[in-house]
Write a sequence for this structure.
């Protein structure tokens, strides 16, 4: 098994089979520390399954997931999350019956044991962190509003703030700009760019303008495997990618 | 901030407590013994309802097996009372053993000679059993309707076991407590019943504060998170299994206390406490009172049971229809329960319907928070 110190995450020959259907087929992918990586691909290419494998929701039929130098295949989701993998879901998954602040409290609280939560008050530095996050995502006015009453864009941002609050080493962001306005999309792209460097960020999306703005390396998935990897310019010229995904030329 | 939080000022809260405490102290003189005893029983049922609200209203675990823990608490109390009141019977063991030719006390009765042991057993044993069942179920990620079915199946297992064990715990006849002695007094006597009423009232208030403390902060928010989106809680780094086990265990402990108090006030514990309808009724009390409100669980348990006894006295056959109707009404018209409806937009919507309040045209938060609720 090849393990390279400079990689934060190594996916080696990942195969996921759902009753014979290969959602992922010998997928190989490596992420450097601090990298921002976009993952694109047509519907059914295995993008979400790819995240499910890393976060422990789906156990691969074959292959290895190496995170920070250790194998995380077969570990429980919450253990992987504590190890430093954070995830933002495709449609915003926030706790709608809790307030904005309570949502963020859940994400920044450590240790995540019942005894700590019931016995102790939240630490001051964690409260400061919540303040900071709410300012970044423009929700400071909404501290005590129920998260369910937020607009779609605000929910997306709240979930991103929750992800950041979790302080993961690896952030997996699934379609962060679905349903956002152009302005919000640009702001989100800038936010994600600013997070990389310190954090390693994987962004999955369809929106080519958004991906271009991220200005990062792109991996193209197709039929459960990595079709092509490189900068936006490289992949746009790649004939295989044009055939399966981009189709018509971008103007 | 939100409409759902009605703010009372301190004087009102204080006077509420003074009146409540005065009523509790005065109840034995205001009510005839029979009614007082009924009220005491229903108050003790409100403690098991609080537990149901914690696991169902807050955490989304619909247990149809709370009767198990309720009965266990009752049996613990009854075993202590029977064993300590059996000096005049053959072999110094409870009278019923003679019927089945048992001469030696079964081993698990022994610790119940100790009042201290019993005091702890009443809530710790049900809590441990609940914790064990809960852990096994939650670890295997059994949830939703499968969880409900499993709890009901466990209930039936316990029911059948207790029903069949004449030689151990008097089987289907159960254990009587009203003719036993406690501190030299007959448990069924008027003076003891009055004391039990006060103890129950105090414990209901204590259990209420305890439950409020459990759900108040981040712990309670995680429970709500588990109810609304469990996988999300997992991916945030929390282990839902532990949280669910703890809260299920707490509900089990509350059920045990409830069962013990109910037993000493009704005079008997029997496998009837573990019948399927009784455990479903517990859920109905909470549904009608208001899920996730705690106070609704208490009010639901007391009022529905009081209504049950009043209706049953007047029209013996009709209670089941009324209870069923009430449940259907709540599920269809007041899904949040009566208290949930009152705390939410319910009263406002009703007044609007009769033209007594202006309709909200934008968002409630805009119209109500800015101008207050005082415009006409």
């Amino acid at each position: 098994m090849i393990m390279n110190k400079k990689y934060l995450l190594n996916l080696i020959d990942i195969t996921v089979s759902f009753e014979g259907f290969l959602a992922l087929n010998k997928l190989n992918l490596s992420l450097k520390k601090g990298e921002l990586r976009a993952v694109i691909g047509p519907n059914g290419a295995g993008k979400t399954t790819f995240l499910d494998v890393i976060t422990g929701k789906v156990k691969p039929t074959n292959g290895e997931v190496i995170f920070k130098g250790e194998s995380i295949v077969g570990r429980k989701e919450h253990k992987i999350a504590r190890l430093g993998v954070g995830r933002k879901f495709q449609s915003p998954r926030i706790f709608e019956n809790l307030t904005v602040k309570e949502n963020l409290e859940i994400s920044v609280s450590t240790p995540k044991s019942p005894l700590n939560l019931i016995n102790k008050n939240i630490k001051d530095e964690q409260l400061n962190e919540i303040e900071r996050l709410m300012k970044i995502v423009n929700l400071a006015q909404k501290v005590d509003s129920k998260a369910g009453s937020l607009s779609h864009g605000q929910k997306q941002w709240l979930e991103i703030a929750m992800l950041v609050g979790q302080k993961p080493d690896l952030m997996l962001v699934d379609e962060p700009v679905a349903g956002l306005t152009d302005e919000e999309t640009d702001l989100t792209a800038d936010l994600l760019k600013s997070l990389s460097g310190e954090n390693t960020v994987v962004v999955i999306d369809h929106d080519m303008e958004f991906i271009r703005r991220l200005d990062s390396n792109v991996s193209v998935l197709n039929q459960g495997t990595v079709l092509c990897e490189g900068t936006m310019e490289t992949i746009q010229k790649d004939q295989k990618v044009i055939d399966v995904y981009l189709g018509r030329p971008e103007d | 901030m939100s409409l759902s939080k009605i703010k009372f000022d301190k004087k009102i809260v204080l006077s509420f407590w003074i009146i409540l405490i005065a009523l509790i102290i005065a109840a034995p003189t205001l009510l005839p013994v029979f009614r007082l005893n009924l009220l005491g029983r229903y108050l003790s049922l409100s403690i098991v309802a609080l537990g149901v609200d914690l696991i169902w209203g807050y955490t989304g675990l619909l247990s149809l097996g709370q009767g198990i823990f309720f009965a266990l608490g009752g049996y613990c109390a009854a075993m202590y009372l029977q064993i300590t009141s059996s000096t005049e019977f053959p072999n110094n063991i409870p009278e019923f053993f003679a019927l089945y030719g048992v001469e030696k006390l079964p081993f698990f009765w022994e610790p119940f000679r100790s009042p201290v042991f019993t005091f702890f057993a009443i809530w710790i044993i049900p809590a441990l059993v609940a914790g064990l069942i809960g852990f096994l179920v939650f670890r295997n990620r059994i949830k939703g309707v499968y969880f409900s079915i499993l709890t009901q199946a466990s209930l039936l297992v316990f029911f059948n076991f207790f029903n069949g064990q004449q030689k151990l715990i008097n089987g289907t006849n159960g254990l009587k407590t009203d003719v036993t002695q406690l501190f030299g007094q007959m448990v069924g006597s008027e003076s003891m019943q009055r004391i039990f009423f006060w103890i129950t009232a105090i414990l209901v208030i204590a259990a209420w504060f305890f439950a409020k403390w459990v759900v108040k902060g981040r712990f309670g928010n995680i429970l709500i998170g588990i109810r609304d989106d469990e996988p999300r809680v997992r991916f945030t780094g929390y282990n839902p299994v532990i949280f669910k086990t703890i809260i299920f265990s707490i509900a089990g402990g509350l059920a045990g206390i409830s069962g013990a108090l109910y037993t000493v006030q009704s005079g008997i514990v029997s496998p009837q406490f573990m019948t399927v309808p009784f455990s479903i009724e517990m859920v109905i009390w909470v549904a009608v009172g208001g899920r996730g409100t705690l106070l609704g669980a208490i009010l639901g348990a007391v009022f529905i049971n009081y209504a049950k006894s009043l209706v049953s006295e007047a029209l013996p056959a009709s209670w089941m229809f009324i209870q069923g109707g009430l449940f259907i009404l709540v599920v269809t018209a007041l899904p949040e329960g009566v208290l949930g409806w009152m705390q939410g937009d319910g009263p406002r919507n009703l007044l609007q319907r009769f033209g007594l309040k202006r309709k909200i045209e934008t968002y409630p938060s805009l119209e109500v928070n800015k101008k207050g609720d005082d415009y006409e």
